[in-house]
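Researcher: Batch entry, complex prediction.
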Amino acid sequence: MEKQNNKGSEIKNKKINAIKIKNLNFSYSSIYPNINSNLKEKNNIYSNNIYQRNIYQENIYDYLSKDSSNEYKTIKKSCYITKNILKKDQFLSKNVLKNINLEIETGSFISILGPNGCGKSTLINIISKVLKNYSGYIEIFGRDLNKINPKDTAKLIAVVPQYTNAEFNFTVEEMVLMGRYPYISRFGSETNKDYEKAINAMNLTKTLKLKDKKYNELSGGEKQRVIIAQALAQETPIILLDEPTSHLDINFQIEIMNLFLKLNKNENRTIVGVFHDINLAANYSEKVLFLKDGSIFTYGDIESTITKENIKNVFDTDIYIGRNPFTGKIYISPAFFKTYYEEKDQLVEKNASINKLKKIHIICGGGAASPVLNLLKDLGYIISCGVVNYFDTDLDTAKNLKIPYISEAPFSPISLEAQNKNIKLIKESDIVIFPPIVIGNGNFSNLVSIKEAVEMGKKVIIINGSTDFKKRDYTKGKATKIYQKILKKSLNKNTNLFIINDLHDLIEVLEKMKSNWGGSNGL
Amino acid sequence: MNENSLKKKNISKYLVFLILILIVLIIISASLGSAKVSVKNTSIIIASYIPVINKLIDLTKINPLDEKIIIKIRLPRIFLSIFIGIALACAGVIYQAIFRNPLADPFIIGVSAGASFGATIGLVFITTVKLISLSAASIFAFAGAVGVTFIVYNISKIKNKISVVTLLLAGVALSSLINSINSFIIIFKTQDMAKVIFWLMGGLTSASWQQFLLITPIIIIILVFCSFFMKDLNIISLSDERASQLGVETEKVKLILLVLASIIAASAVAVSGIIGFVGLITPHIMRLIVGPDNKILFPTSALAGGIVMLFSDTIARTLLQPREIPVGIITSIIGVPFFIYLLLKSKRIVY
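Model: Structure tokens for the complex:
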């Protein structure tokens, strides 16, 4: 009796992984025209329809007999047999997945990210037993996936694919009830329980009112929700998502993702999703898996995994990383200014040495300076910034980009000490930039610093953005007066003040300045 | 029942309706022919052969010759045609769902080509073989149909997976090859040409109770077995991938159903010759009425196939009596306009 109890608690304490993948390899051995979604990821060789055979890899394992805790212990004999069927065709075969080792904890929410053709959907297809001729070993809740029969697999793992049209026009009700297939015996038909579960799934996805409509006559978003209802009717502890929200409008996108999050948090269901949208993944999942060319590039939590470097490596594209001001989650944005100017042949590397000649100081506040910081850092300028309060988005950006900054305690007005430090930095700089920040009594001295910069004869660039300065003035006109004084001063004195609209203008102004300072080493 | 509950489907109303039509059609068809028997007398004669009811029937006023004509000549042909219709329509339902193609029919993967090749051999070279009541042509037609389907199936099987596109292409390619060989044989044996062509046009002139008893058990057993796979078939008709995700043993079910559908189509063709369009149009008509759910479509199409086939065969043997028109011609004359209508309609939607 005692022994049994011990055993019970042991199983409870030990967290069994929902999915465990060891040494998974997969390559196309032939072309099946009916597996369209996999062929989506074909490269040019495949579209030429070259029939190819490839290397068979057989991975041999010995399985010890199943012990009472319903787990299989495996001993890997690490014996790979590689048979070359047709040697010359070898180079045509595409290794879609290479040596995947992965453990997904029960109750976690994982996103799989990677460029098109990296094997994301293939991985989903292998875990859901659509593709079978892989080598390697997959465990679902400690059980060998190969030894779970198809119906039981469908009771453990549901897949939500992107919707497709059905050749035959089933009703929504019929479509959702198909999700109950694994629970209905060959000779039986749907019981009341099956109808209940189907209704429940339709309620969750708001498709119940569509139940008598024909599936093919629905809109794309409705079809996708029906497919989700079909998968939810399976009532599985693991749900695999294959870009399920790509076709949905923003309201349903959020609703559906919140639904999956709820299933994850309240019912401890494990959710593994393939997403295109990195921000969506960052908002909802706990961990991210980056796949690149069929191998795991990196796997870890959101904060440490979604980084500029990783995304540059995996997707070969430049992004800025910030934080979503509403959720506090990591938020990425494409660095389109940088890429745009790279295309215009003003390459960062080429200009970097010239850019480093001059120092730029940027006034911060309320997140308005972040785009400027990101852009100038990327273009290789030497920059500093101030004065910014703690908990301000701009401070996070400065910290992320490792830009020197002058800071002030959270939610308090700028002290004289901070302002003096700021003015000292301005003195050391050649150019001062004033982004479209909101001026209140707290950061009023930032505007004063700009006035001093103009008086010092520094080149000052004021970015006005789309809003009028008056609307950004929360000091009852005090700031507007100063602002107008700055404008007046510049009028009689010189052309050192530039008033511009956006980042494009900023780059152009800087480029113009550069042509003056390039050779002569002076302004 | 409130608006938010799902209703269990009621299939019996369709079945009762179709069975009633079938019974009426059987009686009318049995009364028609060169020897005139009234509908009333026909009903009495048929009823006298039904257990329980026969005790209430008085046969004294009936001409024994009429009884013989109806029971020995007309009824076997009627029931045989019904079961051939059932077999072809059910095979059509299965093929259309597996190929996800509403234009698929039992002959698309080589059943008809194989049967006609076998029949040609049986009619031209080996005429002496006979099995119970089946002629050499029938036996070889069955063998040819199953054989060609097997070859087509093996061509399109790649590593235990059946590629639908390859299957259709291989069926079409092999069919045209075999038809060429057929024509080649016929030009050297012109004396048998009429026999072969008449067989190919299809007909039930040689129908007998023996033939009926030989093929109907096969058809019934196979169809009852197949009917347990209709849930799977529904899901397979979405896509192979989705079927696997929902727990269907896709490849196994596809294999079982393809083989069984080919066997029943081959059995039907072996006794009747090539009868086109029944397997194609019946599932379509029924899909318009009962929807695409194969659990309902399968039994209703079976009955509807029987009705279509019996109707066509009745016209075939009575329209120009005492001359007989091959039933394949009648089904095509009814079927082709409908087929073209479907093509025009579906062109606007999908193809």
